Structures are given as structure tokens and as C-alpha cells.
Amino acid sequence: MAADAKEGSFDVVIIGSGPGGYVTAIRASQLGLKVAIVERELLGGICLNWGCIPTKALLKSGEVYEQLDHLADYGLSVEKRGFDFGKVVERSRKVSAQLNAGVAFLMKKHKIEVVMGAAKLETGQAAPAVVVGDRRLTARHVILATGARARTIPAVGLEPDGERVWTYREALVPKSVPKTLIVIGSGAIGIEFASFYRALGSDVTVVEALPRILPVEDEEVSKAAHKAFEKRGLKFRVPANVKKLTRTKTGVAVEIESPGKEGDGKSETLEADVAIVAVGIVGNVEDMGLEALGVKIERTHVVTDKHGATGVPGLYAIGDVAGPPWLAHKASHEGVHCIEHIAGLAPANIDSPIPGCTYSTPQIASVGLTEAQAKDQGREPKVGRFPFRVNGKAIASGETDGFVKTVFDGRTGALIGAHMIGAEVTEMIQGYVIAMTCEATEAELHGAVFPHPTMSEAMHEASLDAYGMVLHA
Fold first, then answer.
1. What are the pLDDT digits (tens) for 330-375?
2. pLDDT, tens digit, for every residue of 16-56?
3. Which candidate in 301, 446, 452, 460 is catalytic?
4. Residue 460 appears among annotated catalytic residues
5. Rounded Cα–Cα distance for residues 170 and 162 (Å)
6. What does the pLDDT average to over 180-185?
7. CA torsion, ordered 422, 426, 428, 431, to nearest 10 deg
8. SS3 of the chain
9. Sign of CA dihedral 86, 89, 94, 95
């Protein structure tokens, strides 16, 4: 470090300003701590600038555009439909910019010092010192919230070039809509981009190495999603392993191999204008000096205890860099827990159920155990289902595809899982999250009053159905 480096002393220094970092900083300030937050790129991190938020802006544009094909179903008509792709992308960037400015305002409001630049860690006293350019920040506690980035596999050509091979970053700001597109990976990121580009007319093929798409979801939801996406024109190769991606004069060629039952796998080469690589993420753990400090890293993620402690005195890690699930709301939850633990409070339950959402058309949302996981744990699950096709609000809205599925523990009656596919289920899942957080059983859910007419009534009916009490099916 330079001899004229500027010193700064804080109670907490947080590295990374995504939903984990900036929420943790705000809570720390509320607790009366002196806080600095270090960010090397944009306040709000990947989520606000290159992930959760701008993708939802794009998806909304795609959803509205696709709905224009169904105006006649509502007794409506339009003379001509079309889109200005530049303006679609511009809108998504404006949304991100607005929220980025919002984070800056919150940092100022809570008197949190923002230090822009890449952070490196050095041996300190109470906690490692944080060096950012010509500044050396010391603190009693340092929290890593550096997030993660798209996983690439250069050995088989799965590496972005900004033109023909994209990750989520390039997919957010292209110059035009590709006529043909291959999406490699069918997790939430891959499916959301496949859904968006299909809505705007791209011929999309999704390649998934595992036996089914959306592999973390309940199998029934996964199968229903596959069928619904095919109905929209999406194509799938499942299961299929990518052997090699080659850039051609006009786009990309992707060699895939589908395993056979008797070892007689089928090879195929898919061609498209562009390929999107969505095969997972890796933690941002490089170039900070973590190894020299003795931080344990496994598969690109920092190993922590349930409070985020790394084992190095004064050093914690939260969010994506600390491992799955790689979700913004999980990072925020972990950050609040971590700083409240540091402050000596009895923090919120770190084991609170974490919902997962995929904002495709149709939407998918889930929390807790799948039916298969419950069986594997010996839970004797009681399962309920209710389709939207017999829900009054769904029929009135013309949104009858999909269903709600509940999983209860057969011994205790506890709600242990919920899975949904359909319109706006990402907004509905929180009802089940609250129920599970409050350790609700079937008795509480059966006795709860759901407003009519709403899509959420399907949640009540699915809970009733698990115990043979369904009313409207």
C-alpha cells in the first residue's frame, strides 16, 4: 500500500452493494454502527443493474406484446402490432438507472460512506483491513457481499464474445432480436431469456443436460412448464450434453449428445444466430486476497457458519458468494441476520423458508420441499392440488393454465412445501412463505379466509384438497 494512503475507521465495512450488501449496510446504520460500503462497478450490484430488475422489465414488454395476439379473446382488436426493440431495451436500462439512483439516495440517507473501487483484503487487527485504491479502511467487522457471475466453460466454447455467444449481461442489451437462438441451461435465468425472446418472435431451442427442465422445481411443475413452453413454440433438447460450441460465419453451431438407454446416444448439431450460456454461476472470490487470509473456499464459494462467519476473525460472507440458493432475497435475509448477530441481537431465523420464482410465461414459484424430497425424508407427505381452470378469477381473466400444489407433513400437519405454475404466481407464493415461517399447519390454512374472486383461492383449495376437503373441484 502507498505510504500516503488515506485511512478510514469504521464499525463495519461491506464489500459489494447488491441486495445483500446495501440492505446489510442500511440495517447496520439503523443499529447505530458506522458503515462503509465498497462497490467496484454500480450501486445495486448485478441484481439491480444486470439481473433481477432489468430482466423483469424486458419480460414485461414481451408479455404485453405476446398478449396482443389474444385480444380477440377479450372482445378487443388492434389494427397493427409491432415493437421498437431499441426502446424495449432502453426502458429496461432506465428502470435499472432509477433503482441505482435509489440505492445512492438510501446510502446518503443512512449516512453510509460509499467507496468506489475494487477491494483487496490485508491482515488487520479486529478484522482484515480493506484496501481500495489509495484508501485503507479498518473496521471491527468486514462482510463480503461480492456476489457471483455467470459460469462459463471455455473448453467447449461456452464463453461469451459479446456478439454470438452471450451470458445474461449481453442478453440484456443486444442491438437486435436474433431470429434463431439456442439457450444452454434451463434454470430460471435460461428459461426467462428463452421466454422473453420467444415472445418477440425468436425461434428458440433450449438445451438442458439434466433429465428435465427447471430441475430444482417439483416434477409435476417441471412437466407442466415444459408442455406450456412448447405450446408457445419453444423447442427443447432434454437431456442433452453440449460437446462443443463453434462460431460460424453466420452465428453458432452447437454439437449436442443425447444419452441413450443402452449407451447409444444420439448426436446432433444445432445452428443459430446466437447462443445464451446459462449453465450456473460462480462466486466472486478472486483477486481479494482471501486465500492468503486463510478463508476456506469450496467450488468458488466462501464457506461460512450459519451466521456468515468465515472462520477468519472479523470476516463474514453473505449472499451468492456464500453459496446457493443464488437469490437476491436470500442475500438480503442473510445480511440482516449477519449484522444483527454481530450487534448482539437475537436475529431473525436464518433458516426461514426461501421462495424461488421464475418470471417466464407462465410463471413458476415454489417454497420448501418438493413431493419427492418429502418422501425421501420419510415425511409421509399429504399432497393437494387445484387447477386454475376452475378458479373463477382465472376464468374471468382468461388465465386458466396452471395449478397450485401443496405438500403437508402427514404426521404433524405442517405445511412443508408449495409449488405453483400460472399467471402471477410469483406474487402469490408469499402467502405460503408466511405460513411456513409461522409454522402453520393444515388447520390454520383451512380456517383462513381467502378473498373472492381471486387467483389466491386456488391456494386455499389446494390446502383443502390435501385432506380430501376440496370445495370447487
1. 999 999 999 999 999 987 677 899 999 999 999 999 999 999 999 9
2. 999 999 999 999 999 999 999 999 999 999 999 999 999 99
3. 452
4. no
5. 6
6. 98
7. 140
8. CCCCCEEEEEEEEEECCCHHHHHHHHHHHHCCCCEEEEECCCCCHHHHHHCHHHHHHHHHHHHHHHHHHHHHHHCCCCCCCCCCHHHHHHHHHHHHHHHHHHHHHHHHHCCCEEEECCEEEECCCCCCEEEECCEEEEEEEEEECCCEEECCEHHHCECCCCCCEECHHHHHCCCCCCCEEEEECCCHHHHHHHHHHHHCCCEEEEECCCCCCCCCCCHHHHHHHHHHHHHCCCEEECCCEEEEEEECCCCEEEEEEECCCCCCCEEEEEEECEEEECCCEEECCCCCCHHHHCCCEECCEECCCCCCECCCCCEEECHHHHCCCCCHHHHHHHHHHHHHHHCCCCCCCCCCCCCEEECCCCEEEEEECCHHHHHHCCCCEEEEEEEHHHCHHHHHHCCCCCEEEEEEECCCCEEEEEEEEECCHHHHHHHHHHHHHCCCEHHHHHHCCCCCCCCCHHHHHHHHHCCCCCCCC
9. positive
Band the pLDDT of 388: cuts 50, 70, 90: very high
Model confidence pTM above 0.70: yes
